[in-house]
Amino acid sequence: MALTWPWALAALLAVPLLLLARWLLRRRRKKLAVRVSSLALIRAAVPGPSAWRRRIPVLLFLTALAALGVGVARPHASMLVPTSSTSIVLAIDVSQSMCSTDVPPNRITAARAAAREFVLAQDDGTRIGLVAFSGISGLLVEPTADKQVLLDAIDSLRTSRGTAIGQAILTSIDAIAEINPEVLPTGVDLPDPGDVAGQYAPDTIVVLTDGANTQGVTPQTAAEQAKARRLRIYTIGFGTTDPAPIVCSVDQIDQGTIIRPPDGRFGGGGGRRAQLIDEETLTAVADATGGEYYRAEDAEQLGKVLGDLPDTIITQRRDVELTVWFVLFGALLAFAAVGLSLRWNRT
């Protein structure tokens, strides 16, 4: 425990000064010659409070003064406290395989719907950021509590070529660094992360993907960067391994990457097996950062996984001020001292 105003402990001198004053007063009374009157004889016949009843209120009052004196110095301590995530960055895979229809009507539609439900279910003060990634990654919305901005961005998601999971994690780290000064951006030298147990930052990254990393930095390398910054990553593998046509509507395709077909839809003839999810890598990323890997094979499971994420409570080491507890303890002792004194000294 440390003190913000250590010089305020001088208030504790009130305790020994009061004891000294009490001792001097009792000594003076013993030296005074007291003439005994008839009234004094009557009072002497009435039993007074016992010694311990006289001393308990005094001790309580002195202890109250000591507690208040320490409280004035504003004590504080570093301790682990439970806290909900202050911001969540949702990184969504928008690679071409998200057009797979194994999750009807297709994966990207189900992912959009689940992401919308996730945003709407959050408390008004929760900040959410949105990152979209295919062959490259980009921050669509910096962490914000404006739900309408997030919903509009989710509805604008477009599929493209490639899957850069590692780059998406790095982009998410930088998004958090913009709003949390305690989280350093990528590209800077960091000390050895060591043991992160119980010391996580109050921000999390959620990565939703239906495949494996195909280009850019590896997810494991990016996870080490997140670990060094005490950021948890939760990974979600979405989709099945069943062969299914790749079909997306025009508003789900990046027109700069995929040529628009005459019927307004992009599709593959017959069944096509989508890229397999790299569950081993996604699990390793989550484990390395203290997060968790989830598997969702349909829209219902995906909605449930995202719905359970806000309930995750982490512990974070914070500097907690203890002044109020010392003041409350001192006030209660003072009230108890006065109450007992009035009750036991009635004659």
Give the SSE layout.
Elements: E1 2-3, H1 14-31, H2 38-45, H3 51-72, E2 75-84, E3 87-93, H4 107-121, E4 127-133, E5 137-144, H5 147-155, H6 165-179, E6 203-209, H7 219-228, E7 232-238, E8 247-249, E9 265-267, H8 279-289, E10 293-296, H9 299-308, E11 313-321, H10 323-344
Parallel strand pairs: 3-4, 3-6, 6-7, 7-10
Antiparallel strand pairs: 1-2, 2-11, 4-5, 8-9
- Overall morphology: elongated
Class of the largest domain in CATH?
Alpha Beta
Number of helices: 10
- Overall mean pLDDT score? 80
SSE pattern, N- to C-terminal? EHHHEEHEEHHEHEEEHEHEH
User: Total strand count, please?
Assistant: 11
Task: Estimate nothing, just give the exact number of structural domains.
Answer: 2
Cα separation of the termini = 45 Å
CATH fold group of the largest domain: Rossmann fold
Q: What features would you describe in this structure?
A:
40% of the residues lie in helices and 19% in strands. It has 10 helices and 11 strands. A 6-stranded mixed beta sheet has the order 5-4-3-6-7-10, with helices on both faces. A 3-stranded antiparallel beta sheet has the order 1-2-11. The chain has a two-stranded antiparallel sheet with strand order 8-9. Helix 4 runs parallel beside helix 9 (299-308), helix 6 runs parallel beside helix 7 (219-228) and helix 7 (219-228) packs parallel to helix 8 (279-289). The longest helix has 22 residues, at 51-72. It is elongated. The two termini are 45 Å apart.
